[in-house]
Each structure stands twice: as C-alpha cells, then as structure tokens.
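Standup notes
- DV: blocked on the single-chain target, sequence here:
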Amino acid sequence: MSVRVLLVDDERLIRAGLRAIVDSEPDLTVVGEAADGAEVPGLVEQLRPDVVLMDVRMPAVDGIRATGHLLSTVDNPPKVIVVTTFENDDYVYDALLAGASGFLLKRARPEEIVAGIRTVLAGDSLLFPAAIRGMAARRSRATSAAPLDFLTERERDVLRLMAAGLSNGEIAAELFLGLQTVKTHVGNVLSKLGARDRTQAVIRAYESGFVTPTG
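- DV (later): unblocked, structure below
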C-alpha cells in the first residue's frame, strides 16, 4: 500500500512542488492539502495520512501549534516533518519540542525529501546534528549536564551517539555491539524518556543538559 502524505503550507506553489515530488514515487501518494495549521486535525481524522509535511511558518496557526495540537489530540497520529526555509530557524526547534520527527529544507533536492519521508516512517532519525546543536545552543536552559540516572551506562552511551546523528549500525560499530542489541538499547531509551522517536529523545537530551551544544 502507498504511504499517505498530507501537505500543509500556505504557499500554493510550494504545495504543488511537494505534490509533484511525492506523487512521482510509486510507493508515496498525496492524499490532501491544507493552507493553514488549523485545518490539520480535521484532515488527519478524515484522510488518515502516515506523514504530514508541515510548513513551520504560517500566518494563522503555525506549524508549531498545529504539531502540538495534532500529536496531543489525535489517536495514532501520523509522523510530522516540518518544512522550513532556514535550517537554523528557532521555529524548527519549537516544532521538534512539540513532537515533530524531524525537518526538511524547502530547497532540499527531490530525492532528499523522499528519503526524509522514508527515513521517518522507518523510525530512524531525520536529524541534522550541527543544526540541532546550533538551535540548542541558542535556547539552552541547562547549566550543567544532568546524569539521567534512570538510564543505564550503556543507554547513556547510545543516547550520546544518537545525538551525534549516528545510525543504529554506526552505533553498533562504535560500541562494538550487535545491531539487535543496539536496537534494544534505543527502544529502552525511548521508553524511559517517554519519547515518541529518536528525534524526541535527542531533544530531551539537550533540554536536560545531558548532551551540551558544545559537545
């Protein structure tokens, strides 16, 4: 079955471009469009998309409020990928805090947008470590690294490498562990942090001070 995608952007030309990219893939299909975040919950209930490509800046209800409302009120909500013009936009960080699974730049190549959708659906990170670090540095409220004592030492190691943008395979190589073992640790980290996905776990690591923007 095709992956169902909902497009949310106040610019018609942006929506048209995204539709052309998504619908060109045999396993992806656009099921609907919205010009404002206020339309999102109703369309999600009606159309049941798997992924929402959400503009972060819209004049009425922006992507931050729309993402937070969607993920807190809709049963089995779709994955949300925010779409932005600037990678260092503080709005993006707020959207990630609200529950978005990652972000894409509007100037991204078609293959990058398609890969981003598939990455998020697979449960992997759609992170740009340098950009996240920069946004966290401007917004950091923590004064010292929190120990996150409820995580085991190995889980803390895994979380640090997740924040660095490493995949499960790369983490396995770095820590000399089996891939399935890493997947188990990642699952435990998400569960203990109450995170929906890897992106949320990384944001939690920065917000707590466990991972610092300077390394």
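- Follow-up: The CA atoms of residues 177 and 205 lie 22 Å apart.
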